[in-house]
Each structure stands twice: as C-alpha cells, then as structure tokens.
Amino acid sequence: MTIHYAREAFARFEARPMSPAIGAELIGANLSQPDDQLIDDVRAALLKYRVVFFRDQHITREQHIAFARAFGELEIHPATPMEQPDREVLRIAHGPKSRGTENAWHSDVTWRDTPSLGSILRAIELPEVGGDTLFANMKLAYDKLDDETRERITGRVAVHDIARVFAGRLNTNATQLHEKFPPMEHPIVRTHPETGERILYVNTAFTSHIKDMEPEESSALLGRLYLTAWNPEIQCRFRWAPGSLAFWDNRACQHFAASDYFPEVRIMERVTIAGDRPYFDPAE
Fold first, then answer.
1. Please, what's the largest Cα pairwise distance for the chain?
2. Full-prediction pTM beyond 0.85?
3. Is 212 assigned a catalytic role?
C-alpha cells in the first residue's frame, strides 16, 4: 500500500494531499486556459490520488464542459431535462423543497454497460456551512479485506440496476427504465484499466445482488462490502467554497454528499466523462 503525504510538484501545479489515503488539492492550476501539459498533469494526479480538487476557479459552464471534454467523450445523464441546453451538464439542486438524496456511498452510473471514467463537479451555490463531499479509496477497501473474503468475491459478478435509485426520481417504474437501461453485470473486483490495481466495485446505490448466489447470502455479503467505504482511514472530506471543483476517478473511488444543510440551498453542476466496460484480469 502506497501512501502519499508530502506535496508533489507538477509542471502546472503543486499537489497537496488531503489525507494519507486519497485526494489532493492541485494548487496553482488554472482551468480557464488549460493546455496539453495541464491536462496531462491532471490526469497523472487523478490516477495517483483518485480525486483531485481545485480552488478559486471562477469558470463558465462552457469552460467546465471544455475542460471535461479534454479527458474524453462526455455522457448525458437520463435525469437531465430534454429541453436543457448543454445537456452534458447534470444540475444537482437542493433547498427548502428538496432534501439532498446523494448521501449514500456510491459510484456513479454503475448501471451503465460502460460506467463513467470520472466526473467533474462545480459549486454553483452553497450553504453557509455543510454540504461537504466525502470520498473513499476503493483500492484500499479491497486491500483491507481479509484473505477469505477476497478469495470469495474475486472473479464473481454483481448486478447493477438503475431502478434502485431513479425509478422514483424519474417518476417511472423499473420495467420502463429497463427497456432503455437493462440491469448490468460487472465484476465485484474490477481491474483498473490504467493502473492495473484491483478495486472493490459494488455500491449501495445501484448494486442489487450477486449473480448465482442465494439471496440471503448475497445480501449479507454485499452488506459487509458496502460498509468498507465507511472506514475513515480510507477517506478524505472536501469542504466546498465558491469557485471549487472536484474531479474524481469513478473507477477507483466512491463518494458521499453530506445532506446536513437542509433547508439551505446547495446547487452543483456535474459533467461526466464516459468510461469503458469494467473487467477483471486475474493476471494483474
């Protein structure tokens, strides 16, 4: 297990770790005018720290989209209104009439055949206090499992279902959702496509059950695996401020948006980079 404590100098910024396990603030980065060197440095920092943070970046929505597009093709989320311009942007707004519901450990869109590479979240309007986002290193979650559990789950497959969360939010039912987004099977332990690391890849939001396992056994095992993200020793916590952005590797970490600010207003905008199909390589 490699842990990074000291600041690290890149060509376009300095990385300041947020915790021994995960996360770094990239000090000195300028996202309004990103060049190839900055993109290369951010990509390297993302792979190393799994989530990176930027401060004082007062960029436009167009600049937000352009920065994200430098890392790959962008996704459009089914919760984005059809009439919204710039449909690459998912607006997440909560206030007196809408309590935040992202307060569970999860990876984004694991119900897709090809879940996202990562997301870049930008603060638009914030409560005076509260609304932090927490991140958990799911490589360390896997590493900390006992040998028997690792042997039990490695090579097995779990099912991920959009309806668990979005049937209610989109005012539809599972049957209708599954016509467009059928449940997907992904390895419980995935191989990171760029680092080769083994990552625990189930989450309480979208994982419904383990394939070819009795329901009670599946439920009990998944319950244990979900709890691994709750270990503070594999986490960092980010306090938002005007001009803040977070960019996380959705393949390697989970996140939790604290909904402790109700009824205050919190508005965020997320642009998500498409990924590829999860796989497990026993040789890694």
1. 53
2. yes
3. no
Check: CB of residue 80 under 8 Å from CB of residue 109.
Answer: no
Write the CA distances from 50 to 24, 33, 123, 196, 253, integer angstroms: 8, 23, 19, 14, 7
Say which of 108, 161, 198, 266 is annotated catalytic: 108
Please confirm, yes or no, whether 160 is among the known catalytic residues: no
Digit-coded pLDDT (tens) for 48-94: 999 999 999 999 999 999 999 999 999 999 888 888 889 999 999 99
> Quick check: 203 and 105 in contact, CB under 8 A?
yes
Whether 64 sits among the annotated catalytic residues: the reply is: no
Helix (H) or strand (E) holding 226: helix 215-227
Alpha-carbon distances of 250 from 10, 114, 116, 159, 254, rounded to whole Å: 23, 12, 6, 17, 7
Q: Say if CB 239 and CB 23 are below 8 A apart.
A: no
Residue 35 has pLDDT above 80, yes or no: yes
Q: Which of 94, 122, 251, 255 is catalytic?
A: 255
Give me the catalytic one of 50, 192, 266, 270.
Answer: 270
Q: Helix/strand/coil (H, E, C) string of 153-207?
A: HCCCEEEECCHHHHHHHCCCCHHHHHHHCCCEEEECEEECCCCCCEEECCCCCCE
Catalytic residue flag (residue 255): yes
Burial class (CB in 10 A: 0-12, 13-18, 19+), 37: exposed
Among residues 94, 106, 160, 190, the one annotated as catalytic is: 106
Q: Which two tokens stand for residue 47?
A: 């792979």
